[in-house]
Predict the structure.
Amino acid sequence: MPSLWPEPFGLSGLEAGRFGLPTTAFAVGGIPEWLTDGVNGAIASLDGVRATSLAHAIERCLDPNHHAQLRDGAREVAGRYTMERHLAALLPALERAAR
């Protein structure tokens, strides 16, 4: 996810994770809520040349020594974000707001 715009959540990274695809992204907006460097992908540094930083993050995800672990982590983290869990957290908040 090469965007530097502060994504509110960056859902496409989690959607890719469901298929075992680790994500590389910058830690902007809501992305750090679900992307953990070395667990389900790699975070690119905002310092220096950003394109180079993103390329290095992609290389870390493709490292044969860590790729399988990142794929497993991507699936596990994505599995935490289901519609059922989202609604279970959202509905009580909406009910409180409706009172």
